[in-house]
Amino acid sequence: MKVAAVASAITRKFWFVLAIALLAQLTLIWLGTASGDPFGDVRYTYSAWVTSMIDHQNILGINEPWVYPFIALIPLWLAHFANPADYMTGWFLITVNLNMLTLAYLLGWGKKMERAKSAWFLIACIFLCGPVALGRFEVFSLILTVIGAIALWNNKEAKSMQFFNLAAWIKVAPVAALFTGFVITESKRKFILNLVYGTVAILVVGLALGGNSSMFSFVGMQSGRGVQVESTIAIFWLVQIIFNVAGAKIYYDNEILTFQVSGFGVTEVASIMTLVQFSALAITIWLGFRAKKAGVDKNTLFAWIFLTATLDLLVFNKVGSPQYELWVIGAAFVGVLFGTANWKPVVWLTVFSSGLSWLIFPIFYGDLLDGKPFGVSLLIVRNLAVVAILVWSNMQLMKLGKKELALK
Question: What region does 162 belong to: left with phi over 0, alpha with psi -120 to 50, or beta?
Answer without folding.
Answer: alpha
